[in-house]
Amino acid sequence: MSAALRVGIAGLGAIGRAVLRKINQGGIPNIVLAGICVRDRAKAEAFLNEIGATAPILEIAELAERSDVVIECAPAAVLPAIAAPVLGAGKKLMVLSAGMLLSHPELLALAKEHGGQIIVPTGALIGFDAVSAAAEGAIQSVTMVTRKPVKGLIGAPYLTRNAIDIEGITEAKRVFQGSAREAAAGFPENVNVAAALSLAGIGPDRTTIEIWADPNVTRNIHRVTVEADSARFEMSIENVPSENPKTGRITALSAIAALRKMTAPLRVGT
Predict the structure, then answer these.
(1) For 185-234, what is each residue's pLDDT tens digit?
(2) What does the alpha-carbon distance between residue 135 and residue 121 come to, in Å, rounded to a whole number?
(3) What amino acid positions are annotated as catalytic residues?
(4) What is the pTM of this model?
């Protein structure tokens, strides 16, 4: 058996807690917890005590040094501060705030320069394998329509900047239509799936996104249509929100599944 993979967790919100709990339970073979990096140390210590975990709380540079892979589970705005020391140390970084990658191409350059790697798990969307495969040929178009409960979009910078008020609406309202790059900038905590989809396929400027605030739905709904020379396919998923309404429960499970693949004797999917 190869040496256990040392995993660090940066951020201890809904996703970080779910991943940490799974590792602490021994739920992922050949994985050990190297440590965590958080803003609120007291809150993190309380959670560690609650679940009986003994992970050290470290600064990001030390976490990068002690880990083989660091999982970014933090607010999108702090991704560059997490990524730089991890990638600079030539380590792997699993990114959940994928939208920030579109506005920070220097992180890709840093990974290439130092032999690090950025991993974007499937997250809240299905079909990345199909999109990636189609991109080896020619894709004509990728479109995505997202519908979210109102509370999952409140506070998004795009809505604030454009004075779009969605509180109290009684029917579905389209609040955005544009490219994945524009969506990632305007909704950095809400539609990381759009950025991830664009990175898997034809890029952020050719991937088209619609975002709807819908008071009549309780799940985060994503529908994707891909037109390519190899296939035409449609994908639809309805994600149950986590305790953080901006994020689906399946996002944390996707990170756990990606970790499991790193050490599993059988790996299914690209």
Answers:
(1) 999 988 888 999 999 999 999 999 999 999 999 999 999 999 999 999 99
(2) 17
(3) 222
(4) 0.91
Structure tokens at 57: 């709380």
Per 3-state DSSP, what percentage of the chain is helix, strand, and coil (rounded to 5)?
Answer: 40, 25, 35
Question: Which CATH number among 3.20.20.100, 3.40.710.10, 3.30.360.10, 3.40.1110.10 corresponds to the domain 128-246?
Answer: 3.30.360.10
- Which sign, positive or negative, has the C-alpha torsion 109, 92, 244, 180? positive
CB atoms within 10 A of CB 210: 16
Torsion over CA of 185, 93, 65 and 249, rounded to 10 degrees? 90
What pLDDT digit, counting tens, does each position of 85-128 carry? 999 999 999 999 999 999 999 999 999 999 999 999 987 788 88
- Topology of domain 5-123+250-263 in CATH is Rossmann fold (3.40.50)
